[in-house]
Structures are given as structure tokens and as C-alpha cells.
Amino acid sequence: MEPHITDDLAHFLRVMCTFYPMLALGLFSSSFFQGAGKGLNSLIATLLRTIVFTPLFAALLAFTFNMGQVGAWWGLVIGNGIGSMLMYIWAEYFLKALLKTKYITKTDGASA
């Protein structure tokens, strides 16, 4: 293996170690919306995180700030982190609003 490849791989792994905790936050929020029966919210949030924020920040850091390959890696981390944080805030807001609503019991629902 080439020496520069080993150095690049080590740097990549260091950067990606910060990616995975934020990914868990986004996956939790997405799963929360799915469990609450709001699949469309989950889809929108996931698409924003993966299709909008992540490539936007990767390109911004790699090309605009001329950071190259390392900028793309950090762009993945930052884009996913911001998207995950926004998803988590949205999920928390949704949960607070949901808890304020009236609870429905079996007798309040449709009779079978």
C-alpha cells in the first residue's frame, strides 16, 4: 500500500468517527416519525438530510473553500450533523405538540 493512501485512510477514519454519532440522531428522528405514523415527515426529513444538506456542505467545503478531498469528508459530517439536528428539533417539537393533544381511548373511537 502506498504511504499517502495509508495517511489518507487514517485521516478519513478520524473524520468519519464524528459522522456516526450524528447519523444515529438522524436515524432516531426518522424512525420516530415513522412510528408516529408520519411517514411523509420522515421521508422529507431524510431527503433534506441526505440529498440537500450533505452534498451541499461537501461541495461547499471541497470546492468553494478549496479543501479538496478532506473538505468533502468534513462536508459529509457537517451536512449530516446539521440535518440530523434539525430533524431532532422537528421531532421534539412534534412530540411536544402530540403530548398536548387529547388522548383517545377505545370508547372515544369508532365502535366496532
Give an account of the 3D structure.
This protein is mainly α and 112 residues long. Helix content is 82%, strand content 0%. It is built from three helices and no strands. Helix 1 (3-35) runs antiparallel to helix 2, helix 1 (3-35) packs parallel to helix 3 (68-100) and helix 2 packs antiparallel against helix 3. The chain starts with a helix and ends in a 12-residue tail after the last helix.
Please outline the major beta sheet. Answer: none
Q: What is the approximate shape?
A: elongated
Oligomeric grouping of the chains: single chain
Helix content: over 70%
Query: In total, how many beta strands?
Result: 0
Please trace the helix and strand order, writing H or E for each element.
Answer: HHH
- β-sheet strand percentage: under 5%
Tell me, rounded to a whole number, the average pLDDT. Answer: 90
In angstroms, what is the radius of gyration?
20 Å
Unreliable runs: none
The number of helical segments is 3
Structural class: mainly alpha
**End-to-end Cα distance:** 69 Å
